[in-house]
What does this fold into?
Amino acid sequence: MKKLYGMDTYVQSVGVKNDLEIDGFAISVCKELGVELARHRSRSFEEMQQWGDDLSSFDLVVALSPASQRAALELTRFFHLTVEYWPIMDPTGIGETREQKLNAYRQSRDQIITKLQDRFGPPSEAA
It folds into this structure.
C-alpha cells in the first residue's frame, strides 16, 4: 500500500496470530518490487491495540483470509468501519522447489497488488 500510494494513508499490517518472523519467501518477492520487509514484524490484533492502535480509529480493515475476516468482524462489531475480505491465495506449502515456491508467493503478491488497484485506483505518482 505504501509503495503504491505513498505515506498519506495510515496503514498497519496485522494478523490473527503473531508469528513474529516474516516468511522469507514473502521478503524475497516483495524485495523484487522494492518493498523492504526484512525488518517488518507481524503482530496480532490484540498486540496492535496494546501498542496504541485503536481499531475504532481505522476506516477500513482488509482481511486476506477467512480467519482474519472473522476476527476483524468480531473485534470491530461496535465500530463504524468497513471490513472487506479479499480472497488471496495462501502460498505457504505450495511448490516443491525454491523457484516453484517463489512463483506461488509472486502470484499472491500480484493478487494483492491487483486488489489494491481495483479498490484504490492507479498508483500515485508521489509513491
